[in-house]
Amino acid sequence: MAQRSQPVTSVGKMRCISCRDEYLASDAGTCKECYEEASETEEELKREIEDLKSKISFLTWLSPVDDHHRPSSVLSFTDVVLVATDDQSPPVPAHKAILVSRSPVFKAMLESEMEESRSGTIKISDVSYNVLRSFVHYLYTAEATLDENMALDLLVLAERYQVKHLKAYCEQFMTSKVNGENALISFAFANQHNAKHLMEASLSMVMDNMDKLTKQDEYKELVEKDPRLVVGIYEAYLSKQVNTAAVATEYL
Amino acid sequence: MAQRSQPVTSVGKMRCISCRDEYLASDAGTCKECYEEASETEEELKREIEDLKSKISFLTWLSPVDDHHRPSSVLSFTDVVLVATDDQSPPVPAHKAILVSRSPVFKAMLESEMEESRSGTIKISDVSYNVLRSFVHYLYTAEATLDENMALDLLVLAERYQVKHLKAYCEQFMTSKVNGENALISFAFANQHNAKHLMEASLSMVMDNMDKLTKQDEYKELVEKDPRLVVGIYEAYLSKQVNTAAVATEYL
């Protein structure tokens, strides 16, 4: 009781303004002024986020393809359709102005006298109806529901039509899913589609599992298909070992 | 020197992790753990802001009217023009799909068999060419360069075409500009256009300057034009005085 009534300083304990717990001087964080400043900054950042979200909601189009891939009623003034040529699926309606604004490839296609511009039909090969709908939905809303396959397919499409924002979005998702099992496939995929972050993350994961590398079926396939890429893995591994050894020597 | 070599606790001083200054226990803010958590939160919020900004930049259309009100080259596939009927100005081109997506009034107009839908021309009265261009620019980009007059004109237009986001944007700007000089006009304007925040801010400013109220020309005009609104000011003032008196009595 006597201790409690003494000023906090004399027992070296203070009460944290944020969590309300007592702490020792050795666990001190900030002074009051900096705490208040930080709280204000946080409030300001949160307000900015609210403003940006409201701006996004204003700018987002109602997509002619909705989240659940059902036909949407928002088809006002569409003037072009996209068709997946691989299956007998219905055309996906869209606005030329949106396609042109989102993709330099569509821009070149639709603003010239190309076949697509005249017919109002854009044929897209090597893509399923579902992926095409997700692609169009993203062009209107900057949103997509991803799983590993969808991310892979959309990244390929985003690269083909130079929709950078979507490519980065898929790449970020795929990078978060890299593991010991899929690292080699991811690395080969990233290399093929020039996805730098995914390439780094998967190469790093491959190198963390070098003992299992040659036992994988995918490894044998890759040696067959793209031996140079496999050489790249070994070179990176060797360079990492040399660096590690150099650092270790420094500390000897 | 002896003091310096002692642990910080014994002299009751600590060093702030954030500003690096020494402080006394009585000026303590947070513990270390909470400081680190707050820093992480700040980093996360900043990352979120970056993501949102990149999304906005993807979703923003190149406007057919650029910031400096020069004709823009981005006029692909426009299918409607807006015309300010008050002056002999050129039509402002736009996309029906954009107008419909941003304004329920344009939606009703263009999706029905109204004159505007058939002719592809929307006539807008009581608006200058410059204001109309800024209005259209905002529909594409959620951005406008405001001064007091532009904010006022755009708010009126935003209300007429039910573009809530723009109305809120103008109202926020006008609220930040309320002062003793313009409070009465702002209050009358806000009342006429149902701008609640601006109404509150300007009423509060009017009440802070009650001694000058009846001396203003605008006051006489308002009594002439809308005496009920002036009664509203007096009622609010009286109610505030009564409340202030009640609080004062409580502390007696």
TrEMBL record, chains A, B:
It comes from the Eukaryota. Pfam families: BTB (PF00651). SMART domains: BTB. The keyword 4Fe-4S does not apply. Residues 31-62 form a coiled coil. Residues 78-148 form the BTB domain. CDD domains: BACK, BTB_POZ_ZBTB_KLHL-like. The keyword Coiled coil applies. PANTHER family: SPECKLE-TYPE POZ PROTEIN (PTHR24413). This is BTB domain-containing protein. It comes from Papaver atlanticum.
